[in-house]
Design brief:
binds nicotinamide-adenine-dinucleotide; 2 domains; binds uridine-5'-diphosphate-glucuronic acid; 14 strands; single chain
């Protein structure tokens, strides 16, 4: 089976490499010459654990290649995936579909034989039908089916998520399209992963509903964490107690500085717009967005309070700037709100992130970047944990205290044990903990 993957980003490149590992022949097409240059050398342009090895193995086996030329890849393909970005549209918060439709217009002239064109990008309900109408107008002669195949992988564990999914979701109303998609995902269905076939509208909406629900769990636990502080409970105890109920589940109940990333913020915003347009507003999701916005601001105030009410003239060491660990992705990271707020209020900020400096530095002007956590802590009044990279969990708190000028720790991810921090002579503030 031959696959053309249009867009070699966090989703396209991982999907392409995993499909080639299943034994399919994949050509990954991107417009970004820099990315193409890296990928042709077997170097992933994004940081995703395990991806370089997977790419190199499949490139050597002749199953994975990279190209800037859409024509041959589309002509040969049984399935063409659209995995380009669908960012939040400036000004109105809708999903920006310009990259998707541009790719559709570009691929149309090359369709040959029966081809499945499927969205892997997250697109609002109705988009597959719009793509179909557009292709019909451009190529009335072509034989094709347009499917929806939303992706549920997470950055940082993308390969494991892609190869061991809770479910694969395919939206189609074409019997021929379904046959092709069944064959494509056979390697997963044979291993017991459920491959679900639904209507295109259901598949498209299910993707947004899933992300909105997960975002809701995070906003929920963040509010419960604040309540815990006010009534003397401990959010970790509360989360693990409610999480034992299988109807609730123990995942996505970690409080923090609010959800970020390239997906939850834009997808929550987009489903709100879709629902308003359909005159069926999703008021719970609107509140989730509000709570998350306020959360980041409240975290900056929390740091201010921990430093005695003002950060003016203080030196703050921020550990982690990416939106989550095991990625270099800075899109909508909470640090992008919290760090500038601290700087505006007169703090100087030093930072260390194992992968975040490259994309973080241009977005966080004025930050002094360091090569290690201890270097960032040198002379600092406060330590702030923004992202829970594993290496921070093992930080020697006594060495941290010795390097610092002050003793304040604001642990926005609850990675340190409060007693251990206190024993090291630090003044500890966590989230929702006694
Ligand atoms: P990304 O920005 O990392 O990658 C998009 C790539 O598409 C870029 O390399 C860009 O150069 C390329 N591109 C754009 N237009 C092109 C064209 N016409 N031809 C060839 N290449 C083109 O985006 P991403 O994070 O991979 O997200 C892609 C989509 O997948 C989005 O809709 C997103 O919501 C969805 N998604 C992302 C994740 C995630 O973890 N990042 C998970 C699930 C779903
Ligand atoms: C998320 C979803 O988990 C994926 O299923 C989905 O495919 C993807 O969005 C997408 O549509 O792009 P991702 O953004 O990579 O994946 O990362 P998550 O692990 O979901 O984390 C998102 C944000 O929520 C991060 O800022 C993280 O710190 C925060 N979070 C997560 C919490 O604050 N608490 C939690 O308990 C879990």
């Amino acid at each position: 089976m031959k696959i053309c993957m249009i867009g070699a980003g966090y989703v396209g490149l991982v999907s392409a490499a995993c499909f080639s590992e299943f034994g399919w022949n994949v050509t990954c097409v991107d417009k970004d010459e820099g990315r193409l240059g890296d990928m042709r050398k077997g170097v992933s342009p994004i940081y995703e654990p395990g991806l370089d090895d997977l790419m190199v193995r499949n490139m050597k086996a002749g199953r994975l290649s990279f190209s800037g030329d859409l024509g041959p890849a589309v002509r040969d393909a049984d399935v063409v995936f659209l995995a380009v970005g669908t960012p939040m549209r400036r000004g109105d918060g809708y999903a920006d579909l310009s990259y998707v439709f541009a790719a559709v217009d570009e691929l149309a002239p090359y369709l040959e034989g029966f081809t499945v064109i499927t969205t892997k990008s997250t697109v609002p309900v109705g988009t597959s039908r719009q793509i179909e109408a557009r292709l019909r107008a451009l190529r009335p002669d072509a034989k094709f089916a347009v499917c929806s195949n939303p992706e549920f992988l997470r950055e940082g564990s993308a390969i494991q998520d892609f190869t061991h999914p809770d479910r694969v979701l395919v939206g189609t109303d074409s019997a021929d399209g379904r046959k092709v998609m069944e064959k494509l995902y056979k390697p997963l269905s044979l291993r017991g992963s459920p491959v679900m076939f639904v209507s295109r509208e259901s598949a498209e909406l299910a993707k947004y509903a899933a992300n909105a629900f997960l975002a809701m769990k995070i906003s929920f636990i963040n509010e419960i964490a604040d309540l815990c502080e006010d009534v003397g409970a401990d959010v970790q105890e509360v989360a693990s107690a409610i999480g034992k109920d299988r109807r609730i589940g123990d995942k996505f109940l970690h409080p923090g500085p609010g959800y970020g990333g390239s997906c939850f913020p834009k997808d929550v915003s987009a489903i709100i717009r879709t629902a308003r347009e359909a005159r069926s507003p999703v008021s719970i999701i609107e509140q989730v967005e509000r709570v998350n916005h306020e959360r980041k601001i409240a975290c900056a105030h929390r740091i201010e309070r921990a430093l005695g009410g003002s950060v003016r003239g203080k030196r703050i060491a921020v550990l982690g700037v990416t939106f989550k660990p095991n990625t270099d992705d800075m899109r909508d990271a909470p640090s992008l709100v919290i760090v500038p707020m601290l700087q505006e209020r007169g703090a100087t900020v030093t930072a260390f992130d194992p992968q975040g400096e490259k994309h973080g530095a241009p977005l966080l002007p004025g930050v002094q970047w360091c090569a290690s956590a201890i270097e960032a802590l040198d002379g600092a009044d406060a330590l702030v944990v923004m992202t829970e990279w594993n290496e921070f969990r093992a930080l020697d708190l006594e060495a941290a205290k010795a390097a610092m000028k002050g003793d304040v720790v604001v642990d926005l991810r609850n990675i340190f044990h409060p007693d251990a921090a206190r024993a090291a002579g630090l003044t500890y503030t966590g989230i929702g903990r006694r």
